Amino acid sequence: MFGEEKGLADVANDEIIKAIPFAASIGIELTLITPEQVVGRLSWSQDRTTAGGAIHGGATMALADTIAAICAVVNLPPGATTTTTASSTVFVRAARSGTIIATARPIHVGRSTIVLVIEVRDDVDKLIAQTTQTQAILASSE
User: Fold this and answer.
1) CATH classification of 8-138 is 3.10.129.10, yes or no?
2) Residue 111: pLDDT above 50?
C-alpha cells in the first residue's frame, strides 16, 4: 500500500495521506504513527460543516476511519492487507471551530482481525466522538 521498498516508519506522513486520495482531498493530516497509536487531525472549514456550522459527522467519521486504517496497517503481519468489516461511531458533541484530533489504538490484534478504538477530540481535549472498528486481516495472495 505504501511502497514495497520502504517500511511504514520510513515513509513521510504526507506520502501516506497521498496514498489515500479521499483523505488527502478532505485535508486529513497525520501527526503520529506507531503500532500503539496513530494520531491525525482535520481542521474546521466551512465546506466540511452542517447547516448549523458544526463539522459534519461524515467528515468526523472519515477522519476516524482513515486513522484506524493506518493503525491497522502498521499492525499487520508481513504481506497482509486489511479491510474494514465493522465501524460504529457515537457522537458526543459538535465541533464548530478549530481542529478535531483522532487517536486510534488497537485493543485486539489477532490472527484474523484487528479491533481499534478511536477517540476524536477537539483542540481543547473535549470528546467529540468515539468509534470502534474491526478490520479483517487478509492474507497475502502470493
Assistant:
1) yes
2) yes
CA–CA separation, 108 and 106 (whole Å): 6
Mean pLDDT computed over every residue of the chain = 90
Domain ranges of the chain: 8-138
DSSP structure string for 60-127? HHHHHHHHHHHHHHTTSPTT-EEEEEEEEEEE-----SSEEEEEEEEEEE-SSEEEEEEEEEETTS-E
Mean pLDDT of 33-41: 95
- Strand 81-91 and strand 38-43: the pairing is unpaired
- The predicted structure's pLDDT at residue 6: 38
State the Cα–Cα distance between residues 78 and 74, nearest whole angstrom. 10
Is 17 in contact with 28 (CB distance < 8 Å)?
yes
Confidence of residue 7 (pLDDT cuts 50, 70, 90): very low
Structure-block grid coordinates of residue 132: 470502534
Q: With left for phi above 0 and alpha for psi between -120 and 50, is residue 41 left, alpha or beta?
A: beta
33, amino acid identity: I
Q: Which pairing describes strands 127-138 and 99-109: parallel, antiparallel, or unpaired? A: unpaired
